[in-house]
């Protein structure tokens, strides 16, 4: 029997199979001008529009596919379409419309004759809500049921979504190994023709984001590389490509290729498509640009980038607080990062802010606050137990020990942190730790190692173009080691005893001075050194080599 399908529809199908998304969408639209498309071709048309970032067209055609399935009595297919409609609307922050489609999904799944897959799709919104509400136990319960329904019905899409949701819930609950295993299992099906193209892209993005949240950097790098290959193989793909470029940019920043990182972020920020990238993608691109500008010392450009990210809906922290610190606005920086921490209850999200928080606290001379922030980071690292989180906590502990005048105690955690970052090929972070190691080594009279650490750090900063770090090193090197500090011989004596942790009363006993006289000396020392706390005076004394 002769095939009665319109040649235009057949062309649309061929283009769809070849992943020429924009062309496929246009072919289906032209074919429909000659006659109505069936529900399956409407689904293909909607998918092609979505992959080409023609969001409005995708939603309109998807709704027509739903109506066509309902009219044809296929409630199970209608349920699947209703899920994807609701999911897409939720991603667009159109919660009311999304909930409307999820209600239709539930009614479709409850109809007599629907299969297990339809009932599985009907449970997915509850699983996603539980994950968003941080109810990880409920997420796992929902996904176990969805997984069972998906396996019974043979719906590979449903199985992959359930496994991925479960993996992310386990990770956030602290069961990192089990969570990563579930994510890996969900990714096994990405080469299957049974998975819809949008789900393949979503699985990549969900998995990379989950790995990044626990700083599983090697895994994130591996999946980012595969995502890039998938995107590059589809010349007419627009959706997912911006996110892919930003994942690449983050890894390039970590690996020290700041120029390539900035180029990718700028490409996303400036590119045009059939419809612009969604605001979250553009916001992250602006933030990434600002980060590189701040690291290079272009502070005015960085400020504009952070503000642009904020306008697009991304909290510009911790970068904006670090920018304020670089601008010399230490108290403003500290208030800003404290505000950000106060608004963030999720442990892994707090871990993203804590390194900036303890650094700013130390710069502000708030040693007790820095120690508390360090302890929180250590607790998070212990709970999730990944090498990078452990390195972040070790870095904090080393810096706090150094500020508290315990250079011997600082050495071990700093060496641990350096080893992890060095092995991961993160030159900037490793070089910053080298600077701290230099200070600690000099404080314990290991001057040769101190000089070597500074030399190696300087070479990295010069290669990266990290101007602010180079300026700090130059300022430190030009600071007189002795003599030109403005302190009298007696004040220098007092400072050295302050650096040992002694109280004013104890110093008075040692030097046969009244406590009131020591108070006056300490006040003069603070004034001459430009500090406000004993901890800050101690740190500066070591930096300027004023203590033996």
CATH architecture of the domain at 346-478: Alpha Horseshoe
pLDDT < 50 runs, ≥5 residues: none
By DSSP (H or I, 4+ residues per run), the number of helices equals 29
Number of strands: 0
Q: Averaging pLDDT over every residue, what do you get?
A: 92
How would you describe the overall organization of this protein?
It contains 29 helices and no strands. The chain has helices at residues 7-17, 21-32, 39-51, 55-71, 75-91, 95-110, 116-132, 136-153, 156-172, 176-187, 197-213, 217-232, 241-254, 258-270, 279-296, 299-311, 319-326, 330-342, 347-363, 367-384, 387-403, 407-423, 427-443, 447-464, 467-478, 489-498, 504-511, 515-529, 534-543. It has 548 residues and is an all-alpha fold. α15 runs parallel beside α17 (319-326) and α20 runs antiparallel to α21. Among the domains are: 346-478, Tetratricopeptide repeat domain (Serine Threonine Protein Phosphatase 5, Tetratricopeptide repeat, Alpha Horseshoe); 489-543, Winged helix-like DNA-binding domain superfamily/Winged helix DNA-binding domain (Arc Repressor Mutant, subunit A), CATH 1.10.10.10. The radius of gyration is 29 Å and the shape is elongated.
Topology overview:
Elements: H1 7-17, H2 21-32, H3 39-51, H4 55-71, H5 75-91, H6 95-110, H7 116-132, H8 136-153, H9 156-172, H10 176-187, H11 197-213, H12 217-232, H13 241-254, H14 258-270, H15 279-296, H16 299-311, H17 319-326, H18 330-342, H19 347-363, H20 367-384, H21 387-403, H22 407-423, H23 427-443, H24 447-464, H25 467-478, H26 489-498, H27 504-511, H28 515-529, H29 534-543
């Amino acid at each position: 029997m002769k095939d009665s399908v319109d040649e235009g529809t057949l062309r649309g199908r061929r283009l769809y199979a070849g992943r020429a998304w924009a062309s496929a969408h246009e072919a289906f639209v032209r074919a429909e001008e000659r006659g109505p498309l069936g529900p399956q071709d409407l689904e293909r048309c909607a998918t092609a529009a979505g992959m080409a970032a023609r969001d409005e067209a995708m939603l309109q055609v998807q709704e027509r596919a739903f109506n066509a399935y309902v009219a044809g009595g296929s409630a199970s297919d209608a349920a699947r379409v209703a899920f994807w409609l609701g999911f897409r609307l939720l991603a667009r922050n159109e919660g009311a419309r999304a909930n409307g489609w999820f209600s239709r999904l539930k009614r479709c799944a409850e109809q007599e004759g629907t299969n297990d897959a339809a009932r599985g799709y009907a449970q997915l919104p509850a699983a996603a809500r539980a994950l968003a509400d941080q109810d990880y136990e409920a997420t796992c319960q929902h996904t176990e049921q969805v997984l069972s329904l998906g396996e019974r019905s043979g719906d590979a899409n449903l199985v992959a979504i359930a496994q991925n949701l479960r993996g992310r819930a386990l990770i956030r609950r602290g069961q990192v190994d089990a969570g990563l295993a579930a994510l890996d299992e969900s990714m096994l099906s990405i080469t299957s023709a049974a998975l819809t193209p949008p789900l393949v892209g979503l699985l990549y993005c969900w998995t990379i984001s989950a790995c990044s949240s626990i700083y599983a950097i090697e895994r994130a790098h591996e999946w980012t590389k595969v995502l890039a290959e998938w995107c590059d193989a589809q010349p007419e793909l627009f959706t997912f490509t911006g996110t892919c470029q930003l994942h690449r940019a983050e890894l390039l920043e970590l690996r020290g290729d700041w120029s390539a990182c900035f180029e990718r972020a700028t490409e996303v920020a400036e590119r045009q498509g059939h419809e612009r990238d969604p605001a979250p993608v553009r916001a992250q691109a602006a933030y990434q640009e600002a980060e590189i500008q701040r690291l290079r010392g272009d502070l005015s450009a960085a400020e504009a980038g952070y503000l642009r990210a904020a306008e697009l809906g991304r909290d510009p922290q911790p970068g904006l607080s670090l920018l304020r610190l670089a601008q010399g606005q230490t108290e403003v920086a500290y208030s800003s990062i404290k505000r950000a921490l106060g608004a963030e209850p999720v442990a892994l999200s707090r871990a993203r802010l804590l390194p900036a928080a303890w650094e700013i606290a130390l710069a502000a001379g708030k040693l007790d606050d820095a120690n508390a922030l360090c302890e929180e980071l250590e607790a998070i690292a212990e709970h999730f137990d990944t090498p990078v989180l452990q390195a972040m906590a070790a870095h904090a502990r080393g810096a706090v020990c150094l500020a508290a005048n315990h250079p011997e105690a600082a050495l071990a955690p700093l060496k641990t942190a350096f080893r992890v970052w060095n092995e991961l090929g993160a030159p900037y972070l490793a070089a910053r730790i080298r600077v701290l190691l230099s200070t600690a080594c000099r404080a314990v009279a290991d001057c040769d190692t101190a000089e070597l650490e500074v030399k190696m750090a300087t070479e990295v900063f010069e290669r990266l173009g990290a101007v602010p770090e180079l300026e700090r090193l130059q300022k430190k090197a030009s600071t007189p080691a002795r003599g030109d500090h403005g302190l009298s011989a007696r004040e220098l004596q007092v400072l050295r005893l302050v650096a040992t942790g002694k109280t004013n009363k104890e110093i008075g006993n040692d030097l046969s001075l009244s406590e009131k006289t020591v108070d006056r000396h300490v006040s003069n020392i603070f004034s001459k050194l430009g500090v406000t706390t004993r901890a800050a005076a101690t740190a500066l004394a070591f930096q300027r080599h004023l203590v033996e």
